[in-house]
Design brief:
The chain has one domain. It is an all-alpha fold and 61 residues long. The protein contains three helices and no strands.
Length: 61
C-alpha cells in the first residue's frame, strides 16, 4: 500500500507540473482537447494506456 501511495503521488506531481509551469499553454491544450472528436480521444487514451503498460512491463523486467 505504501508503494501504491508513492506511485499515485508521483503521478499527481507529473500531471500537475505542466499546469504549474505553463498555465497559458495548458489552456490552449485543453481547448484543443475539447475540439477533438470522442473517437479521437478514445484512440489517444488507448495509445497512452498501451505506452503505460509497456513502461510498467519494462520496469518490472
Amino acid at each position: 500500500m505504501k508503494f501504491f501511495l508513492c506511485v499515485i503521488g508521483m503521478v499527481m506531481v507529473v500531471e500537475g507540473l505542466p499546469y504549474f509551469a505553463f498555465p497559458v499553454k495548458m489552456k490552449l491544450v485543453i481547448q484543443k482537447v475539447l475540439e477533438m472528436s470522442d473517437r479521437g480521444l478514445q484512440k489517444y487514451g488507448f495509445v497512452l494506456m498501451l505506452i503505460g503498460i509497456f513502461l510498467v512491463y519494462l520496469g518490472n523486467r
